[in-house]
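Need a sequence for this fold. Nothing fancy.
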């Protein structure tokens, strides 16, 4: 495989990451319109949205099987096209049941696309011989921001939901088909003998460790998304306009960390970067929770984002090295999603029993778990290959 083909494939898989981030993000700003059009209560609409996570958790288990059967190239771009088609159905859903069903399918398709794109991105990364996965995840974040902006603009212009989502779907589906021609040809590399023989104990422990590392990073992000604004406003007395700055700070620094984290990971390795990032996130949030100021808390959320930016790609890279062809990625995604079902309600229970400040201790605790599990991650030089 030549340098030119590797670079083309990197550009193509990066485009799929961007498209996957942008597609569903177009839907999110239209949620109020969908809720109003269907006349749903908050409970009914919330349960329909919950179907997304259920579909991702249950049906996403088949993502590794699909990659093993059809290859990461085909799963990556076909899943993107299928997501686009499903976005159209979200806009056309006539009832609560139909909306819940298409959102469950959306969650499953997102899992398939996630596994396929990451598996192919790691295949390209091995050709480069250095980390590129962080920047791919950074482009997903950029796509999510762009998609959210598109959806917000469409809502502000009163574009009908079905029309808006149909136009977006056609555009991104055509985009996915176009770039698919530049992905790496041929089958994915065969799994090593240790993986072919089944989940041996060492492999099982390793994949679990990688899944927990990724899950802890996602928990820190989602704890900020779900509770950051509430904490700033209700417990620290921040104005409504300031309440969202914590999550904005985290997303911004996380995106920057991903876009520029590859050089750091290539030089120092996933293990050292994870330790430094987890320590930064954990200490910053612990200090902010102890101090209780608005400004220091917003800064701390930003430092959390900077600290966790490379952690999910690190977990995926490690799992794929143990179980390639999407199986390791599928298992990491399953551990991650299970943790996300359990932790947010726990934070709420703790907040009701004590305070939200106590509940947000989950962030430094998650950072501590990463520090404990960090020896499982690779050292410098773990990525091998030739293309530059």
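Here you go.
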């Amino acid at each position: 495989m030549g340098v030119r083909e590797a670079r083309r494939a990197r550009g193509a898989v990066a485009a799929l990451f961007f498209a996957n981030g942008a597609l569903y993000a177009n839907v999110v700003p239209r949620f109020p319109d969908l809720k109003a059009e269907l006349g749903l209560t908050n409970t009914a609409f919330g349960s329909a949205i919950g179907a997304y996570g259920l579909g991702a958790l249950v049906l996403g288990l088949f993502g590794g099987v699909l990659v093993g059967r059809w290859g990461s190239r085909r799963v990556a771009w076909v899943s993107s096209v299928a997501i686009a088609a499903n976005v159209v159905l979200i806009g056309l859903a006539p009832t609560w049941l139909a909306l819940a069903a298409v959102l469950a399918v959306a969650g499953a398709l997102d899992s398939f696309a996630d596994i396929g794109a990451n598996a192919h991105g790691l295949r390209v990364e091995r050709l480069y011989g250095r980390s590129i996965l962080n920047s791919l995840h950074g482009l997903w974040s950029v796509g999510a921001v762009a998609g959210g902006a598109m959806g917000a603009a469409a809502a502000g212009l009163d574009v009908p939901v079905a029309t808006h989502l149909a136009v977006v779907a056609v555009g991104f589906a055509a985009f996915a088909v176009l770039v698919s021609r530049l992905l790496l040809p041929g089958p994915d590399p065969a799994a090593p003998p240790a993986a072919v023989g089944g989940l041996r104990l060492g492999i099982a422990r390793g994949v679990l460790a990688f899944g927990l590392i990724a899950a802890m990073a996602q928990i820190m992000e989602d704890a900020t998304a779900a509770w950051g604004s509430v904490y700033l406003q209700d417990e620290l007395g921040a104005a409504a306009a300031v309440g969202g700055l914590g999550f904005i700070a985290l997303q911004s620094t996380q995106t920057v960390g991903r876009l520029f984290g590859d050089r750091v990971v290539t030089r120092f390795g996933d293990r050292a970067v994870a330790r430094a990032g987890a320590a930064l996130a954990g200490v910053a949030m612990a200090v902010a929770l102890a101090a209780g100021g608005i400004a220091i808390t917003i800064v701390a959320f930003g430092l959390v984002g900077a600290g966790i930016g490379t952690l999910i790609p690190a977990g995926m890279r490690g799992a794929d090295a143990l179980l390639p062809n999407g199986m390791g990625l599928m298992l990491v995604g399953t551990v991650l999603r299970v943790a996300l079902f359990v932790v947010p309600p726990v934070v709420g229970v703790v907040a009701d029993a004590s305070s939200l400040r106590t509940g947000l201790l989950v962030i430094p605790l998650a950072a501590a778990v990463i520090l404990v599990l960090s020896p499982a991650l690779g050292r410098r030089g773990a990525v091998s290959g030739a293309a530059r």
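For context: Confidence is low (pLDDT under 50) at residues 193-198, 384-388.
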